[in-house]
TrEMBL record:
Similarity comment text for this entry: Belongs to the major facilitator (TC 2.A.1) superfamily. Organic cation transporter (TC 2.A.1.19) family.
Full protein name: Solute carrier family 22 member 7
Membrane-spanning parts: 139-159, 166-186, 192-212, 224-246, 252-271, 343-361, 373-393, 405-424
Species this protein is from: Chionis minor
Every Major facilitator superfamily (MFS) profile domain range: 87-513
Major localization class: membrane
Biological processes, Gene Ontology terms: monoatomic ion transport
């Protein structure tokens, strides 16, 4: 007897499963509030070199002091990172005569003055992470995703070894601790370390929530469950825009996005361990206790468990269990057999492309002509219809085609904005929003698709490995923006090329539409 047959007896999608899914959606809301927090935490407002006071400036206005102290860009704006070595008083007579001698221009010597009209403070203004230190500002997001990458390996293994629920609770508790310590950071080094550890902790939440919910749901409702859980990521996206709009000080912003983890910890009390995992690991008594609870909540009162089954002596229990006594699985198991090896290599490439392009678009809020808060909110809203459409598409067209084309179209939209001239702001915004929709469709599909590709005994290891590769993409995505110093459009061209190539790899994966979740490696091979 397979686990799906048991689900039919106890109710594969009833009140029990709905309760679990909604509780698991709470931490899902919190994820984008941290994963995309860099947009606001490290935002760089307009700035210019600080000008030391001089007696000659007494009768000059602020605008005139800037005019004689700071060179201008061709568009007339003041440069952010340079100043004149000596005041150029002749510019008061004719400001259009910008000095052509670069020897009188130097880097900022006395710090910077920031525009605080939009942000009270960010980590950029706190520690002057601008100009020569701009790389450190972008690296803050990279440190976070390095933490998420490490967490994917750690929690992928631990949740297969010690259970989904225990590791989810541990990751939530650690998220609260390190999130609050991040808010209390007194130096850039402390913040970088705390954000890295926060990433490690939140990786467990990202990794465990979907499989834990999916393992309680029957085949017919698997897609719906995956899409429902994913929609709450978009809700978190929109909430981040609203929270960031209301909280303009970076310390309190970190507190505001970390606090909801406490609610998730409390609500986790009502979520049971995965019965599928318990049976696969020989913990039959615990599994049947949860199965009985599920049957009662779903109104299946006729479901009964014999004493032999409760004690683990029934023959059909061993049909359910695909984990042989003393046998353990690790990440190496993902590459030992040919079919599983191909799945692991291809899904890793797809995950890298999905994350790389998604975070590349999500962290470029000011590049499409919209207000950054509005961009964040619109990017969150557009994800919801994208998920709804994918719910229909993945069930009609299949997982493989949906995954491939969603990612390829993401790349094409990014590439289109390289070609469209900057003055066409409205058209660029529409293409960007479409690209964001395709990007989210690809992300939604890849979570669902991957959880169906791997067997129960290796599912969390598989999710851990693919999440590890995805977070490498997420870690590299912010650094690619620094390539604009080589060529202004090089970051977009890079995102486009990677998305199209990795989307094409998805065609090599097997289709999982209406296929039972594999329990053991032999089911895959």
């Amino acid at each position: 007897m397979r686990f799906e047959d048991l689900l039919l007896e106890i109710g594969g999608f009833g009140r029990f499963q709905i309760l679990i899914l909604f509780i698991l959606c709470l931490p899902r809301i919190n994820l984008p509030m941290h994963f995309l927090l860099h947009n606001f935490l490290a935002a760089t407002p307009s700035h210019h070199c600080a000008i030391p006071h001089q007696e000659a400036f007494v009768n000059l206005t602020t605008e005139e002091v800037l005019l004689i102290s700071i060179p201008r860009e061709p568009d007339g704006t003041f440069r952010s990172c340079e100043m004149f070595s000596q005041p150029q008083f002749h510019l008061l007579l004719n400001s259009s005569l910008q000095p052509e001698n670069d020897s009188i221009i130097q880097h900022c010597q006395h710090g910077w003055v920031y525009d605080h009209s939009q942000f009270t403070s960010t980590i950029s203004t706190q520690w002057d992470l601008v100009c020569e230190q701009r790389g450190l500002n972008q690296a803050t997001a990279t440190f976070f995703f390095i933490g998420v990458t490490m967490g994917a390996v750690v929690f992928g293994y631990l949740s297969d070894r010690f259970g989904r629920k225990a590791m989810l609770l541990l990751s939530l508790v650690c998220s609260v601790v390190f999130g609050m310590l991040s808010a209390a950071s007194v130096s850039y080094s402390m913040l970088a370390i705390m954000r890295t550890l926060t990433g490690v902790a939140l990786s467990g939440v990202s990794l465990i929530v979907l499989p834990l919910g999916m393992e309680w749901v029957d085949i017919q409702h698997r897609t719906f469950s995956g899409i429902l859980t994913s929609i709450f990521w978009s809700v978190g996206n929109m909430l981040l825009a609203m929270v960031a709009y209301l909280v303009r000080e970076w310390h309190w912003l970190l507190v505001a996005v970390t606090g909801p983890c406490l609610l998730s910890i409390v609500c986790l009390w009502w979520v049971p361990e995965s019965a599928r995992w318990l049976i696969a690991n020989g913990k039959v008594k615990q599994a049947h206790r949860h199965l009985l609870r599920c049957a009662r909540m779903n109104g299946r009162k006729n479901f009964a468990v014999s004493p032999e089954v409760r004690n683990g002596r029934s023959r059909h229990v061993f049909f359910l269990s695909h984990k042989k006594s003393g046998e353990s699985y690790s990440y190496i198991s993902l590459f030992r057999t040919p079919v599983l090896r191909k799945i692991s290599l291809c899904s890793g490439a797809v995950w890298f492309g999905v994350a790389f392009s998604y975070y590349g678009m999500s962290m470029n809020l000011t590049g499409f002509g919209l207000n950054m808060y509005l961009s964040q909110f619109v990017f969150g809203i557009i994800e919801i219809p994208a998920k709804m459409i994918m719910y229909v598409v993945v069930n009609r067209v299949g997982r493989r085609q949906s995954q491939a084309w969603a990612l390829i179209l993401t790349g094409l939209c990014i590439g289109a904005n390289v070609i469209i001239p900057k003055p066409f702001t409205s058209l660029r915004s529409v293409i960007a929003i479409m690209g964001k929709g395709f990007s989210e469709a690809a992300f939604t599909t890849v979570f669902l698709y991957t959880s169906e590709l791997y067997p129960t005994v290796l599912r969390q290891n598989g999710m851990g490995y693919t999440s590890f590769v995805a977070r490498l993409g997420g870690a590299l995505a912010p650094l690619v923006f620094l390539l604009d110093e080589v060529w202004r459009s090089l970051p977009e061209v890079t995102y486009c090329g990677v998305a199209v190539c990795c989307g094409s790899v998805a065609f090599l994966l097997p289709e999982t539409l209406n296929v039972r979740l594999p329990e053991g490696i032999e089911d895959i091979e």
